[in-house]
Amino acid sequence: MSRGVAEIDARSAEGELPATAIVGGIPLAIRPLRQLARLGWSEARLVVNDASAVAAMHEALARYPVAMRVEIVTRSAPNELLLDGRAIYTRDALAGGGVPGPLLSVRTRADAARAESLLYAQIRKSVAQDGFIAHHLIRPLTRPLTRALLATRVSPNQVTALALAAGVLAAVFAALGGYRDTAIAGGLYWLGNALDCVDGDLARLRLQSSKLGEWLDSMTDEISTFSLLAGLGIGLYRDQAGPLWLAVGLGGALVGALTVARLYVDLHRLGLPIDSAQFPWWFAKSPAAIPEPPTRLGAIAHGFTYLIRRDANVTGVALLLVLDLRRLAISLVALGAAIGAAVTIAHYVITASRRRRHRDEPDQPHA
After folding, report:
1. Cα–Cα distance for residue pair 261/258, rounded to 1 Å
2. How many CB atoms lie within 10 A of CB 228?
3. C-alpha 60, offset from chain centre
């Protein structure tokens, strides 16, 4: 659907916060521009006070680019959509058509503080989305780091790169063997997972997510896990635990890597997010399916899902490494890789069978 030109009033009175003030990691006027770009708008007009404000806004756009054409003017003109350049809008309000009302107008420093609290509340995931440990332990611990990084030029992808470095370094320490290096590996593995929460929060606050970031985030998780698995096998072998553990570590890492590689290729082909949880598994329920009444068994099964989330897995493995329970840790990670491979193989076998059955069925006669 073609759209007109969105106009954003970025003018401010004397003593008020300018539209270039940083709130939630980006200038106030940049936030609605990035929101509109995500909704398919390709052109916008920023109305500012004077020539000096034009220069300041050009500088802001150079530092915080948006994926649309933006004209900076000092005079308003007829437009399809008029927004307050110093306000916080919800995505639903901007997507709903008409003239959206702001969630909060930002004119003072006190308004800016309230706006940041509101933005943090908006990006906060539920326990069901995030996982119990991530929601109640990891994000509260990493939130100060996220706030500190908001005021810097550090990008979400750079934080993801640090998470990847922590994961690979964990594998290196695990491969060295011995209790001290194994404990360090556990700490680094958990740190990488914690940084994974920071990059996501930064991206959502700054509206800075991208397909590259999506790939980096998912690949970091997988590389960290499977390299640690290989490292644990090497470390146990170096500590005279026997060749079986070397085979478990290297074999499990290879099986896991091949499995997720196949899944990611298909996710990319289908245009879906690069996330195995979004994969159209044969057992996945239709979104329109009516939920069944909760039962005690269902509640137990639902609670079990929190134990197999990545936040719980990483925390559990890290704790086992700190306690020098390497054999248990490597067994659990390798078992997870084996189960993932088995489920994936079953998926392709079952879906292929369904396609053949559907192809062989005779066409139903018209009524």
Report:
1. 5
2. 32
3. 26
Q: Which two tokens stand for residue 256?
A: 């896991």
CA 30 vs. chain centroid, Å, equals 21
And the tokens for 139? 């994000």
The CATH code of domain 6-118 reads 3.90.550.10
Of the candidates 246, 311, 235, 243, which has an alpha carbon nearest to the alpha carbon of residue 277? Answer: 311
**Alpha carbon distance 209, 288 (integer Å):** 28
The two three-digit tokens of residue 65, written as one number: 């680019």
HSE-up of 361 (CA within 13 Å, CB side)?
A: 9
Fold of 127-357: Four Helix Bundle (Hemerythrin (Met), subunit A) (1.20.120)
- What is the Cα–Cα distance from 219 to 263, expressed in whole angstroms? 12
Bridge partners of residue 83, in order along the sequence: 8
pLDDT by 10s per residue, the chain, length 367: 456 789 999 999 999 999 999 999 999 999 999 999 999 999 999 999 999 999 999 999 999 999 999 999 998 887 778 899 999 999 888 887 777 889 999 999 999 999 999 999 888 888 877 788 888 899 999 999 999 999 888 999 999 999 999 999 999 999 999 999 999 999 999 999 999 999 999 999 999 888 888 888 889 999 999 999 999 999 999 999 999 999 999 999 999 999 999 988 998 888 888 777 778 888 765 444 444 555 554 444 444 444 457 888 999 999 999 999 999 999 999 999 999 899 899 989 998 888 888 777 665 555 4
**pTM for the full model?**
0.84
- Could you please report the per-residue DSSP string of 104-153? EE--SHHHHHHHHHHHHHHHPPPHHHH-HHIIIIIHHHHHHHHHHHHTSS
Q: How far apart are CA 89 and CA 255, in angstroms?
A: 46
Which regions of the chain does DSSP assign to beta strands (E)?
A: 6-9, 22-23, 26-27, 43-47, 69-73, 81-84, 87-88, 104-105
Q: Domain-by-domain residue ranges, the chain?
A: 6-118, 127-357
